[in-house]
Amino acid sequence: MASNSNNPAIIAWGSGEDGQLGIGNNEEKEWACIIKSLQSYSVRSVVAGSRNSLAICDDGKRGTLGHPPETKTENIPSQVKALANVNIVQAAIGGWHCLAVDDQGRAYAWGGNEYGQCGEEPERKDDTGRPLRRDIVIPQRCAPKLVVRQLVMVFWEACQFIFAEATMA
Questions:
Q1: What's the pLDDT score for residue 64?
Q2: Secondary structure of residue 83 in the 3-state scheme
Q3: How far, in Å, CA of 144 to CA of 166, rounded?
Q4: Residues in a beta bridge with 34
Q5: Cα torsion for 92, 18, 62, 135, to the nearest 10°?
Q6: Dihedral of alpha carbons 28, 12, 75, 86, sign
Q7: Full-prediction pTM beyond 0.85?
């Protein structure tokens, strides 16, 4: 196994039934294997959910993998076209959806929205896979202007909680 010393290898293993491992197929892997399609990129971070994953690269290209509902399943990393001109600095993933924050503190969400996890009312499903900018509403009495810097998702029993770390703008 070899990798470019400037770009450490990104490895994956586990369930690949939706292509979320990024190895070019939908197979399960018991042992770690290199995601060859990311070897030429400098990957800043990787986040994974049960049905999808996302890599944030230093060159501005982002890759999503897996099966967000109502979208084409990807089994090799591909750029999120709607975020082509956005510098994503941090991301979080649920089972069927993705959240991301850009370098200006703007939040984006896409994927399954059955329970409102993309910031829309559940009746208004946003299962198109197209990232939409979401305004995180914070009461004025809490702070005059906050900029989101980090998103964290926590799963507890049947509930999902999203926490946003913010700083004063």
A1: 57
A2: helix
A3: 12
A4: 11
A5: -40
A6: positive
A7: no
SS3 label, residue 37? helix
How is the chain split among helix, strand and coil, in percent rounded to 5?
5, 45, 55
Higher pLDDT, 62 or 45: 45
163 bridge partner residues: 152
* Phi-psi region at 149: left, alpha or beta (left = phi > 0; alpha = psi -120 to 50): alpha
**Cβ distance 32 to 11 under 8 Å?**
yes
**C-alpha radius of gyration, the chain, whole number:** 16
Evaluate the CA torsion angle 145, 147, 150, 156 in order and state its sign: positive
Quickly count: other Cβ atoms within 10 Å of residue 158's Cβ. 6
Domains of the chain by residue range: 42-168
> pLDDT at position 48, please?
81
Q: What are the residues whose beta carbons fall under 8 Å from the beta carbon of 126, sequence distance 6 or more? A: 109, 110, 111, 113, 118, 120, 132
Is the pLDDT score of 21 beyond 60? yes
Confidence tier at 142 by pLDDT (50, 70, 90)? very low
